[in-house]
Amino acid sequence: MLRYSISRLLGAIPTILIIITLSFLLLHAAPGGPFDSQKKIPPEIKQNIERKYHLDEPLYKQYFRYLGGILAGDFGPSYQYRDTTVNEIIRTGFPIDIVIGGVALFGALLIGLPIGIMAALRRDTLWDHSSMGFSMIGISIPVFVIAPILILVFAVNIHWLPAGGWQKGSLKYVILPASALAAPYIAYVARLMRGSMVEVLNSQFILMARAKGVPRRLVILRHALKPALMPLVSFLGPAIAGVITGSIVIETIFGLPGIGRAFVDGALNRDYTLVLGVTILYGVLIVVCNLLADLSYSVLDPRVRY
Fold first, then answer.
1. How far apart are CA 165 and CA 180, in angstroms?
2. Residue 82: Cβ within 10 Å count
3. How many whole angstroms separate alpha carbon 47 and alpha carbon 16?
4. Is residue 230 in a domain?
5. Is position 113 within any domain?
6. Does 41 map to a domain?
7. Helix H segments across the chain?
8. In the beta sheet, which residues pair with residue 85?
9. Domain region containing 177
10. 3-class DSSP state for residue 119?
């Protein structure tokens, strides 16, 4: 497994390099620049600013200079947030995204797994049809519809939770955005678990265990549950990265100071270093989460070898 992990990590280097190169070229190919604004800047001042940030150099020199900074762990200064580096922006905003995304994913698993398992065990019953119907609704309704409804009910009408903002260490500022973000993932987890469990329960080894007189509860817990989790683990790899990085809409609606909003502002204002830094972070996160998902297969199924 160690050799497999090292080979996967080494294989991820070209992928990350391609992401960096394409993002760098596309950003610089877009019209405009980080210091173009409605207020006209005198040419000599603009030249001095571009010289300070090495934007007057040929594109290939800028590219290799940026790669050198990445190898040193420096994503460079932000062009729009003056006197602030991209590392500082990520260090400030990314923990907020991790908290919101982590709570959302935990809630999705805590609710979605039992729903899916019970739907599979009670196949073609009212519970099965109703739970899968509500799951389809959860998948269909976008987050930007769910979030205002939660704010209207729990913040405006009954005043249980704040409508937005952020206070470090306060759970009440986490509940609403995490709930809105978790809603579609609850539906995905429930449907995946239901389909996987139904397939496993019809497998030969499950039928053999039942024929030997093993109690139904032990059949489910010891024999069916682990293999049924395999498709869910495959889903969780990109889902972990997606739930952490996919909170841009949530950050906007609830006024959270995460890196998603900074990423959008940076893209609109041609803040090259900020957009590249967040893109690289997302790429590395996806690669690592997929690797962890692959490694967990051997824990769930001893027959899996790398």
1. 15
2. 7
3. 32
4. yes
5. yes
6. no
7. 2-29, 43-52, 59-71, 86-121, 126-140, 143-150, 172-201, 204-211, 216-218, 225-228, 230-245, 248-254, 259-268, 272-295, 297-300
8. 77
9. 93-258
10. helix
What string of DSSP letters covers 267-301? Answer: HHTT-HHHHHHHHHHHHHHHHHHHHHHHHTHHHH-
Q: Which amino acid is at 121?
A: L
Q: Return the closest-CA partner of residue 259 out of 61, 84, 49.
A: 84
Q: Of 144, 160, 153, nearest to 251 (Cα)?
A: 144
Amino acid occupying residue 251: E
Q: Which of 245, 269, 277, 242 is nearest to 258 (CA)?
A: 245
Amino acid at 222: R
Number of domains in the chain: 1
DSSP codes joined into one string, 19-55: HHHHHHHHHHHSSS-TT--SSPPPHHHHHHHHHHTTT
Contacts of 186 (CB under 8 A, 6+ apart): 107, 108, 111, 112, 115, 135, 138
What's the first-to-final CA gap in the chain, in angstroms? 6
The residue with tokens 């269909």 is 140
- Tens of pLDDT along the chain (306 residues) come to 677 777 877 878 888 889 889 988 888 887 777 776 656 667 777 777 777 777 778 888 888 988 888 888 888 888 877 778 888 888 888 888 888 888 999 999 999 999 988 988 888 888 888 888 888 888 888 888 888 899 999 988 888 888 888 887 788 888 999 998 888 899 999 999 988 888 888 887 777 777 777 787 787 777 778 888 888 888 887 788 778 776 677 888 888 888 877 887 787 777 888 888 888 888 888 888 888 877 777 777 666 665
Q: Which two tokens stand for residue 233?
A: 């683990």
**What is each CA distance from 283 to 199, 242, 248, 278, in whole angstroms?**
33, 11, 16, 9
In a domain, 82, yes or no: no
Query: What's the length of the chain?
Result: 306
Domain containing residue 164: CATH number: 1.10.3720.10
- 77 three-state secondary structure: strand
